[in-house]
Amino acid sequence: MTYPETLGPLALVSSHATAMAYGELTADFNPIHCDPDFAAKSPFGRAICHGTMGLNLAIEAAERALAPAYAVRDVKIRFSRPAPVGETLTAGATLTDAATGTYALWVELPDGTRTTEGTLTAEPAP
Amino acid sequence: MMGPALKETPWTFADFPVGETMAEVEIALTPEKAALWASISGAETPAAGAPAPRALMVAAMMETYIRALQPRPPGNVHAGQTLSFHGPAPAVGATLTARFACRAKEEKKGRFWITLGVEMFEGTRPALSGEILSIWAA
Fold first, then answer.
1. InterPro entries attached here (chain B) (predicted)?
2. Most buried of A34, A68, B60, B85, CB within 10 angstroms?
3. What residue spans define the domains of chain B?
4. Nearest-CA distance from A18 to chain B in Å?
């Protein structure tokens, strides 16, 4: 068996409702995500998506594409740019080293701006 | 179990003790949480007892991170993350224990960078580990 060349993509249309739902899931109601008035006065100028919501979209995409033969083992990312609430997030990963099962992981906006970038390493399913 | 790290006033950069374990928090990967993640991501909801999506484990890690250190100043920024998943995924319905330790902190250009290590266990079995890199707001 060989690792898939691409994992995903998987898209999510973010909104105040998804920010509040993800806040409920993680107990993270940081006003930078969930309070548009507070966020408007922050350096970002508007509410931004929870970073791990996009990251989890990439992990979800990877898990769906890798199962059942493989599984996600390691992830290392930077939340490089904010993703404004209201934007569509698209997440996935591209194989960069078939020998080690290493992928370039990304989350991007419709204009191609990458908001999360890093690596994901897969392994045979435990 | 150690429990969360609770203070009367919000945790500040100066409060973080580098090298020390700060908190332990339990969390259940409930079917309700699995359904909520499925509703956000468009995934199918796994049945109770089925392997939990790894995204649900990450969401659980974030909830324990929020609960572990309270209160916190508004406006903290999550800047980076490392994750390692260990062994088979815990089942939906399983309870995990998350342990947090301050691994590093550094002030750079007026920003307060904090690295927290997290280890999650199902019983004594490691399930997830990693580091949360944050820019602390105060």
1. HotDog_dom_sf
2. B60
3. 18-136
4. 6
**Which fold, B18-136?**
Thiol Ester Dehydrase; Chain A (3.10.129)
Residue pLDDT tens, chain B, 138 long: 899 999 999 999 999 999 999 999 999 999 999 999 999 999 889 998 999 999 999 999 999 999 999 999 988 889 999 999 999 999 999 999 999 999 999 999 999 999 999 999 999 999 999 999 999 999
CATH class of A6-124: alpha beta
Q: In chain B, which residues have their Cβ closer than 8 Å to the Cβ of A18?
A: 40
A21/B74 Cβ within 8 A: no
Residue A97, both tokens: 């080293």
Nearest residue of B to residue A25, measured between CA atoms: B33
CA dist list (Å): A31 to A25, A37, B50, B72, B85: 15, 8, 34, 12, 30
What are A37's two structure tokens?
């008035």
- What residue segments make up the domains of chain A, in order of their start? 6-124
ipTM: 0.96
Spell out which residues of chain A touch residue B41, defining contact as CB-CB under 8 Å.
10, 12, 56-57, 60
